Amino acid sequence: MQNARGRVRFLLGSQPTEVELADPNLTLLDYLRTHARLTGTKEGCAEGDCGACTVLIGEVHDQGLRYLPTNACIVLLGMVDNKQVLTVEHLGREKIHPVQQAMADQHGSQCGFCTPGFVMSLAGLQWAASCKNESTPVDRAQIDEYLAGNLCRCTGYGPIVSAAREACSAPLPESWQAHTAVAETTLRAWQNQGQPLCCTSDRGFFAAPRSRADLHTIMSDHPGATLLAGATDIGLWITKWGQRLSAVIYLGQIPELQRLVQNDEKLEIGAGVSLQDASTTLSEISPDLNRLLRRFGSRQVRNQGTVGGNIANGSPIGDLPPVLIALGARLRIASTGGVREIPLDTFFVDYGQQDLAPGEFVESVVIPLDRDLRFRCWKIAKRFDQDISAVLGAFAAKLEGGIVREVRICFGGMAATPKRARQCEAALTGQPLDHETLARARQALATDFDPITDMRASAHYRQRAAGNLLEKYFLAMTTTDLPDLYDEKTWPGLSNQSFANG
Amino acid sequence: MAIVTKRVSDEREAEEQNFNWVGTRAVRPDGVDKVTGRAKFGADLHLPNMLVGKMLRSPHAHARILSIDISSAEKLPGVKAIVTREDFSDLASEFVPAGEMMVNYRDITRNVMAREKVLYEGHALAAVAAVNAIVAREALALIQVDYEVLPHVLDVVEAMKPEAVLIQEDLLTDGADPPADKPSNIAKRVEFGHGDIETGFAKADVIVEREFNTRPVHQGYIEPHACVASVSEDGQAELWCSTQGHYVVRGHCARILGMDVAKLRVTASEIGGGFGGKTVVYLEPVALALSRKACQPVKMVMTREEVFKASGPASGANMRVKIGATRDGRITAGEAILHYQAGAFQGSPVPPGAQCAFAPYDLEHVRAVGFDVLVNRPKVAAYRAPGAPISEYAVESVVDEVAKKLNIDPIEFRLKNASREGTKASHGPKFGPIGLVETLEAAQAHDHYQSPLQPGQGRGVASGYWFNIGGQSSVTLNTSEDGTVALVVGTPDIGGSRASLGMMVAEELGVELDKVRPMIGDTSSLGYNFLTGGSRTTFATGKVAVDAARDLVSQLRERAAKIWDVPVGDILWHNGEALQKNGRGGPTETLSFRDLAESMGKTGGPLVGQASENVQGAAPSFGTHVVDVDVDRETGRVEILRYTVVQDAGKAIHPSYVEGQYQGGAVQGIGWALNEEYIYDSEGRLENAGFLDYRMPVCSDVPMIDTVIVEVPNPAHPYGVKGVGETPIVPPLAAISNAVANALGIRFSELPMSPPRVLAAIAAASSSK
Predict the structure, then answer these.
(1) Reported confidence tier of residue B587, pLDDT bands at 50, 70, 90
(2) pLDDT at residue B95 in the model
(3) Across the interface, do B272 and A114 touch by the CB < 8 Å criterion?
(4) DSSP readout, A301-361?
(5) Which segments of B521-589 are extended strands (E)?
(6) Which helix (H) or strand (E) holds A207?
(7) How far apart are the C-alpha atoms of B115 and B70, rounded to whole Å?
(8) Which residues of B fall within a CB distance of 8 Å from A33?
């Protein structure tokens, strides 16, 4: 790449910081704790599950800087290039931050180990709430959503919820706006220089191309390189499985991959769009998608993880692919030779095997917007928040004069890949919505899948739950006042319709 | 949140009106440090020239170690020391207390570093200290271990069978009658009770007998085990670690490494949760051994996976409980047979489990028998009221079923049979002033218990008991020249004890709370302190702190007497000031603490309050929980709608931290009841060694936990304190199971009641109809 910079550059608090990246695998958390000796940020799991390492990442956005709670343990340092990193040490500037004050006043700490992570998540919530123009106080659902990625074992959460309410009714600290303005000026100046990052050392390289052209170049120079998007999975390769990656290409700085384009007929989501950013638009397709995305990982994971990553990763338990397949999505796959577009369900060839040749990358997913499509999806997991699906069922069909047409049913957690229930679809197609059809469809569904028994659920549970979901979909097509899984009043889904996304 | 006080006398009530600090909700002294990230935990210390230590762990559940070859690893550049079983001497079998549990030195040496065999997946068998973590991990990969893989046993019932593979080939059951003549995996048999249960059952109109199974659960502290060790060339050593008891760590490490105890100074870092799990040693002796070999400081920190695989979970268990009662609701007899998993070494909490099983009930005929059983799992460690949640889950489930059969309200039924002051407990002692009846009455009167349920919902009730302990504590109050005080204690602060201890001292001295700075001293700064465990700190260290404050006050009175030249008997200490009984002062009317501190050099030297005691008179704490649940019939998910904890605190020094214990314990219990479990594959390897698949409750899983503090004072403590930390985890398992039974009409006898298990039970019930 032309004019590449060799050192990672970011604002650590308000301090411009440059780091020689001796190891492309260096995580933000290791950097903070071991190199910068900012030990306020804790390591509780190194897998993005406990949130003790939550920091705020400040990044330039349409209206200014935005602050996203993120798990530092699975962010690679190179990913924060041209961004701002705020840790618990940076929050209290002249005096301690309202969130810190509220956590102390409400006795939100017992042992205090998880406290910095909670403080940072709540600082993210308080910032988001302050961006909102309305003056309604944050409610329990919003607090739950922002805290879904933070584990506390001491308090039972009550005092932390009280602290969240207290802090979010307070204004941002006076110094916040001033500091943010300075930081934004710096970050915009850096971005405008347009230099891509490429750190090379004897342990390998970390590159962050800033255009598709640069990406093609570096991919052809390093065909074996790992493509990194949100690192919510690749981060674990390093921290949990002990892998050392020697060539990493980060996709998060390429504007072409960050686009979200919508017209009357289709929605195109760039592969690099974060799950959180995609959620607002996806939620417009169906309230079910809103609820699903609310339960997708945690706020931290959604801020990091990308739509493209959730697809290209090929996991049988990724939550987006079954939904997108049911919606009839197509995948745009790019290489130096151009772009090819395939139906998403053909992308998943087998366990760990996708239709992606060397030199190719997922560019975007295109979702047709068909108002006549009756779409529903449900996720079944042991826990409401931050849990891997035991079964995820996504259903889409059209009804013509009471007859089922154009049906797509796809499940996650039922096979080695996200997989359509073809027998079941066939049993439904052209049939009326009656008991006989349902019985035949349920029977057919049982032949579609041979799920495994693992620690998350037994094969029997999966089969039964899948059948129940089919029945639920049937009911949803025929009745209007259907009680839902997880009371919709209690679980209104993502709270970000009006705030906190930008 | 409410406090219901049963006062001992009017005099006490009058006294309480005058408390300045006790009973208030002051912000804790460590509050700001914790919200700003300043608080230093186990992994936060960084010393110059420090190495990183990593452990090699067994991939097998049970295998003989044929050889360990470290020669290639030693040659790797950057490797500074490697230790294996060769570096630790074998110790004789000897039991010492660790919290409410006992540990055996012969076993500890084998648990920190495997000798003849590896006994569970994750068992440590070598450790490397290297210049950084990457080199240390590379070195581990170069260590060659030859194993002879042996059959393994995980299930407690299987392990008790005569044909089961022996985990320790020479283990004879202690307490067996007749004495054991053949080795087995049953380490111990204990029995408690009185009367004759057969006579009792013969009088019963209704008898319910059920079998229960529970799975191991982990304490789940968010901070992984961590320490830094530094041993100098002359054998003097420093250890910094996250522990509930640094004196206990010092004793264990000195014994294991053959050191003089005084040569090892241990400093307790801030502790990121323990719940009983940080009362034993894992990394500490190994880090010291590596540092001794390398002559450099060594830091060791467990990964989350290591925490799950190699640090103590609570026992899983198989139990049988039988209870009989008359038609009018009087229990005639109770029997519990408890089989607890110990893990790979003996010492499960089955003795306290058996002691606590029937404690809430005044029974004429009662028997609880416990078996401590070895299995190829990590050695269990204490977990909040160790043993009690398991046995009381079984008993409280059967009690509920008996009450239902008799058509008696579950709280009424408990009140008819409740232990009171003077009741002879099943494990021997006669109860003093206990508050069980008061918690039951408060629960019954609570708005929660009176509120209606929606169709499909269920309400459950259960009571719980923990005995609590006292023990050795040593406290020093160092007076500064400006009249502020350093309060130095030796029991790590795990849930706000610096606040409660500081408040009691400020109360006694009559000074502002912020003039007392509580801190945890290292092992060389104070006399011996037993660990923070057994809910003993606010009670035992609290009593010693009060005595130290009183010691200081008596010195202050002496100094005032000296200044005024009057007999000390004429001096009163009131609101932080000395004054004369006759109301007349000397040159000044009063002498403040600050006046006396400023002049201490001239009046006799440093003012230091001290007390060191082995505190007796710990009083048990009883609690009663009420919970409402809803069950999603399509997914099997149980939702906690409302939860109320009612518990006797004796006296709440800091009500918010008492409530914090109630709420935190209840939520751990909710996790235990509904989702937490260890899941092993057929090779005996743990499948869910991470927070994603070991499911602890998150914020959205729980409602705000309501609390009622009942206060029936403990006469053995100056303010009436009873320990409160452990009892809150005892009732939830049964309370939730009873609520689910009422919601579904299906009674579960297995935990956790996870969605797949609940859905399967719903399916089985509907197909059998």
Answers:
(1) low
(2) 86
(3) yes
(4) HHHH-BHHHHHHT--TT-SHHHHHHHTT-EEEEEETTEEEEEEGGGTEEETTEES--TT-E
(5) 571-574, 577-580
(6) strand A204-208
(7) 15
(8) 43-44
pLDDT digits (tens, 9 = 90+) for B423-476: 999 999 999 999 999 999 999 999 999 999 999 999 999 999 999 999 999 999
* Bridge partners, residue A227, by sequence: A249
- Would you state the pLDDT for residue A133? 65
Arithmetic mean of pLDDT, B210-229: 98
Secondary structure (H, E, C), A431-470: CECCHHHHHHHHHHHHHHCCCCCECCECHHHHHHHHHHHH
**Partner-chain contact A104 B34, CB within 8 Å:** yes
Assigned architecture for domain A259-478: 2-Layer Sandwich (3.30)
Pairing type for strands A64-71 and B621-631 reads unpaired
**Which spans in A26-157 are helix H?**
28-30, 88-91, 98-105, 115-131, 140-147
Do residue A39 and residue B28 have CB atoms under 8 angstroms apart? no
Residue of A nearest to B701 (CA): A384
* pLDDT tens for each residue of A389-417: 999 999 999 999 889 999 999 999 999 99
Asked whether the beta carbons of residue B270 and residue A113 sit closer than 8 angstroms, the reply is yes
Taking contacts as CB-CB distances below 8 angstroms, the residues of chain B near A485 are 632, 634-635
Alpha carbons B506 and B542: distance in angstroms, whole number: 12
Residue of chain B whose Cα is closest to the Cα of A380:
B635
Is CATH 3.30.43.10 what the domain over A195-253 is classified as, yes or no?
yes
B37-72 pLDDT, tens digit each = 999 999 999 999 999 999 999 999 999 999 999 999
Helix/strand number for chain A, H first, E second:
17, 20
- The answer to whether the Cβ–Cβ distance between B635 and A380 falls below 8 Å is yes
Mean pLDDT score, A59-83:
95
8 A C-beta contact, residue B282 and residue B225: yes
For chain A, the C-alpha Rg in angstroms (whole number) is 23
Residues 6+ apart with CB under 8 A from A461: A390, B755, B756, B759, B760
Flag if B36 and A465 touch (Cβ within 8 Å).
no
Longest dimension (CA), chain A: 70
B693 touches chain A (CB under 8 A): yes
| Mean pLDDT confidence for B223-235 | 97
Chain A residues whose beta carbon lies within 8 Å of the beta carbon of residue B33: 112
- Of B30, B679, B688, Cβ closest to residue A112: B30
Domains of chain B, earliest start first: 1-6+433-466+619-769 (3.30.365.10), 152-431 (3.30.365.10), 470-615 (3.30.365.10)
Would you mind telling me the total number of residues written for chain A in this entry?
Answer: 502
Chain A residues within 8 A of B691 when measuring between CB atoms? 44-45, 47, 49-50, 151
The pLDDT tens digits for B79-115 are 999 999 999 999 999 888 777 778 899 999 999 999 9
Domain spans of chain A?
A: 8-191, 195-253, 259-478
- Facing residue for B36 by CB, picked from A88, A113, A458: A88
If you measure CA to CA, which chain B residue comes closest to A112? Answer: B34
Query: Are B495 and A460 a contacting pair at CB < 8 A?
Result: no
Q: Is B656 on the interface with A (CB under 8 A)?
A: yes
Highest mean pLDDT (candidates A88-97, A429-438, B98-107):
A429-438
Which amino acid is located at A236 in the chain?
Answer: L
Indicate the pTM of the whole model.
Answer: 0.96
> Which residues, 6+ apart, have CB-to-CB distance to B15 below 8 Å?
none
CATH number corresponding to A8-191: 3.10.20.30
Name chain A contacts of B695, Cβ cutoff 8 Å. 382-383, 387
Give the nearest partner residue to B35 out of A96, A154, A380, using CB atoms. A96
